[in-house]
Design goal:
14% strand; 3 strands; single chain; 71 residues; 3-stranded antiparallel β-sheet
């Protein structure tokens, strides 16, 4: 079982799991009444990407453009 990556919520700044590209549902920090259920406004927001995806060929272009011949 692997754990989900955790990032800071943009609203309440708590460390929250990121599942499927979204922040997991969570309660804001602080006390609340026993029967009151409140979700942080940052819950279920789309989490921004941390970095750009890696390039396949480094900084250069692919060795040949398009599809190569089979024979």
């Amino acid at each position: 079982m692997s754990s989900s990556p955790r990032r800071a919520c943009p609203v309440c700044t708590r460390e929250i799991a990121v599942v499927g590209g979204r922040f997991a549902r969570h309660d804001p920090p602080g006390r609340r009444s026993a029967l009151e259920l409140i979700s942080c406004p940052g819950s279920r927001r789309i989490a921004p990407l941390l970095t750009a995806p890696p390039k396949l060929f480094g900084n250069d272009e692919p060795p040949t453009p398009g599809q190569q011949s089979l024979f």
